[in-house]
Amino acid sequence: MTDKRVVDEIITKFLFNTCRLAPRLSEPSLQAALSYASIANIHPRNDEDVEIIPVKTGSIAEFYIEPMLKHVGDIDIMYHYSDELAIPEGHPSPTQLPAEFHNRVRILQIIDSHLPGYVYLLSSYFVKKITESSPYFRGYRPCGSPWPTDIIADLEISRPARLQDKRHHLSVDLVFCVRCLSWPSQAADWPTRHRNYGWPDSATVDRVLSNGCDVVQIAHRQCRQDEWMRKYQWRLSFSRAEIVLINSWMPVQQIVYHLLRVIMKTEQLTESADNSGVSTLSNYHIKTLMLWACEMKPLSWWTDDLSLVRICVELLHTLAVWLTEARCPHYFINNSNLVDKSYVLGITACRLLLIDDNYLSSWFVTSYIRQSVQICPESVSWLFDDVSTTWKLDNAVSAVVDWRLNTTTEVLYHDLYSAMYIIVFCVNAFSVSARLCIFWMSELLKADARLFIYFIAVVYLHVVQKIRSGGLTKNLLRALKVTLSSNYYNKRTFSLLTEVVILGSKCQAQAVNTVNCNRSKLIRLLHQSAVELLTTFRHFEARDFGSLAAIVTTDFEALYVYNYVLTRYGEYQQCLDLSIQNVHTLLNAERLVSILAFPEFLQFLDADIVSLTALTLIVSPECRDNARHSSISQLTLSLYLMTQCQLKLGHSLTSLAETIDYIEVAQRRHKVHFTLNQLILKFIERKLVEYIATGNSLSCGRAVTQVTDDT
Fold first, then answer.
1. What is the DSSP-derived secondary structure letter of residue 234?
2. How far is the C-alpha of 667 from the C-alpha of 202, rounded, in Å?
3. In the Cβ-directed half-sphere of 158, how many Cα atoms lie within 13 Å?
4. Of 405, 373, 527, nearest to 461 (Cα)?
5. Residue 89's CB: how many other CB atoms inside 10 A?
C-alpha cells in the first residue's frame, strides 16, 4: 500500500466522520425561517388576503449533511403570490387548488419560446372558488386579448430582491416566481426516459412530478441584449425537483457535490469572466454534472473501493470534456445546452484536466482540511502544524474526528438557544398575526416540537402586551385561535388555551370600556398558559441538555407566582422557596442557561429590571444584536427574586447577609461577563447592603440610581 493510497483513505475517513447530518435548527436554516417570516408578513398589493408564499431553495434546502467547512453562503428563497398560477398552454382550467391559494386566482398560460427552457406568460383568465367553503374552482371572465399583447413582462408589484442580516452577516437572495403545479411539457421526456441503474426510482420521480415547477423572470443569456425579450422572457425553474433529487442521494454523493463546489470556488473556476454577467462556470453546472453522474453511474462506482479523491478527479475530467466540446446537457430538458461556444472555456478545461489524484490529495490536506480545522480548539488544531508523514496526518485527523463526535450535543444546544432568540425576535419585530402563527407552527413542528411549545408561549406573552397597550384586536384573536389547531398539547394546557380563546372572543365582541374585568382574567389566563408551556419546555431542555448546563425547571413558575398570586395575597414565601431551591442548584454550576430580556418576559418583573435592561441597551448598543449580553441567567434571576421576597417578608439581617454571600459567589465563581447580569447582581447586592446598613427599606429605592451612576 503506497503512501498516496493511505493519504486517500485518511481523507475519506476525515470527510465521512466529520460530515454529520445537518441539524434542523442550524444557523442558516434559522436565518431562512426569519427571512420567511419577514416576507410572509408582507401584504402584496395592500391586500391582506393575498399572501406571499416562500420556499427555501439552493444549498440550505439541498444538503442534509453538515461538513466542518461552511457550505452554505447566501440563503436562497423563491416566493410567489397566492393569487397567481401558471399552467402549460392547452391545459384545462384548474378545478381544485391547494389551500394556500387565494379564493380568486389569475391564470397565466405558459407559451414556449424559440429556446428550450425559456417561455412567455400569457394572461388568460381567472378562476374563483364556487363557494367560500368549497375547495373547487371554476373559470370565468377572460382577462386578456389574444397573443401577444397580454404577454406578461412585469406583474407590476414592488418585489423584495435581497435581505441582509447584520447579526449573522448572511445575505438572503429572494427570487420572485409564478407557481406551476404541473410538470412542464418541455421536460415531458424526463419522467419516462430509460435509466440503467435505477436512479431516481419511481417513488422519487413521482415526488418530483407532484411538485410541478416554477417560472422566474430571467431571459436567456443570448437574449439579454434584446430589449423586448429581456423584458418578456421567463425561465422554467426546476428548483423544487432538484431539492427532492439531491435529498435522495447517498451521503457519499452529497459529500462529493460539496467537495466539487469547494474545489471550483477555491480554484477560482466559478468567477465572472467579465462584467457582462456571463460566468465561466457556476454551481448550477456542478449540480448538473452530479445529477447526470448519479443517473449514469452504477452504485458500485460510488461505493466499491471508495476514494473521494478518485471520484472527484473523474467528475472534474468529465466536466473538462463537456467544456472542450461546448456541451453541458440540461438534466431535465432535451436539446438544452448550458454552455455554448460564446463561452471562453478552453483554459478552464485545461486546468481541470491537470487536476490528478496527486494534486487533489495534496489540495485536500493543505487547503480543505486545514481550513476545516480552524473551528477546532487549539489543543486539536496544533496537530496539523506537522503532518509530514501519513502517521502524523492520521493521528491529527483522528483527533479532529473525536472532537467532532464529542461536540454534537454542544452544537445542538447552541442551535436551540439561537432558535429561541430568533423566535422571540421575530414575534417582537413582526408582531402576531394568524399568517405568522401558521407559518412558524408548521415549520417548528417539522423541526423541533420543543420550539413549537416555546413559540406558542412567546405568542401568548406578546398578545398580553398588545392587549394592555391597545386592546384585543381581531388579528390577535385570529392568532390565538390558530394556536389551538394542533393536537400537541396535554389536556390541562389545551383546556386552558380553549378558555383563553373563548374568553378572548367574548372580550373582543364587547365594547372596550365594558370588559376590564374580563380582560384582566384573559391576561391572567394567557400568562398561566404561557408559564405552563415554558415549564414544559424547561423539562425537555433539562432532559436533553442537562449534561451541558445546570437547568432548573421552575424559573418561570417562580416568576408567575411573584407577579400574580403573591402580590394579590401578600405572601411571598412560595416564590422564595422556589428561588432558594434554584439558587442552591445553580450556585456551583459551571454553565447556566438564561431568559432572554425581551419585553415578552420582562413583563413578569419589576420596573427596576426594565430600567436596567434599557440602561444596558443604551450604554452598550452592541447588546441589541447579542442575545448573551441582553439575557438574564437563571441564577441571576433566582437571586433577584430571592432578594425581593426576603425584603418584602422582612427577613433577618443574618439571612440577608447570607444572600449577599451567594451574590458574591455568583459574581466571583461564575465570572458573569454579560452586561445585564452584571448590573442586576450589582443592583441587588447594593440594595441588600443599604438595607442592612440602615435598617430602612426606603433606602433600597436609591440602589438602582446608584448602580446607574456607577455604570
1. E
2. 63
3. 5
4. 527
5. 14
- Residue 681 shares a structural domain with residue 615: yes
Give the span between the Cα atoms of 436 and 442, in whole angstroms. Answer: 10
Of 417, 524, 414, 387, whose CA–CA distance to 461 is shortest? Answer: 524
Are 183 and 199 found together in one domain? Answer: yes
Domain containing 299: what range?
Answer: 3-360
**How would DSSP label each residue in 288-347?**
HHHHHHHHHS-HHHHHTT--HHHHHHHHHHHHHHHHHTT--B-SSSTT-BS--TTS--HH
pLDDT in tens, 217-269: 888 877 877 777 878 889 999 999 999 999 999 999 999 999 999 998 887 77
User: What gap in Å lies between CA 401 and CA 382, rounded to an integer?
Assistant: 14
Angle between helices 607-619 and 703-710 (to 10 degrees): 10
Cell representation of residue 199: 436512479
Instruction: Name residue 216's amino acid.
Output: V
Host H or E run for residue 105 = strand 104-112
Residue 639 burial (CB count, 10 A): 28
Task: Identify whether 246 is part of a domain.
Answer: yes
In this predicted model, what pLDDT tens digit does every residue of 669-685 receive, in sequence order?
766 556 788 888 999 99
> What is the rounded CA–CA span in Å between residue 440 and residue 392?
48
User: Are residues 350 and 425 both part of a single domain?
Assistant: no
Largest Cα separation within the chain, whole Å, is 91
- Contact status, residue 40 vs residue 439, Cβ threshold 8 Å: yes
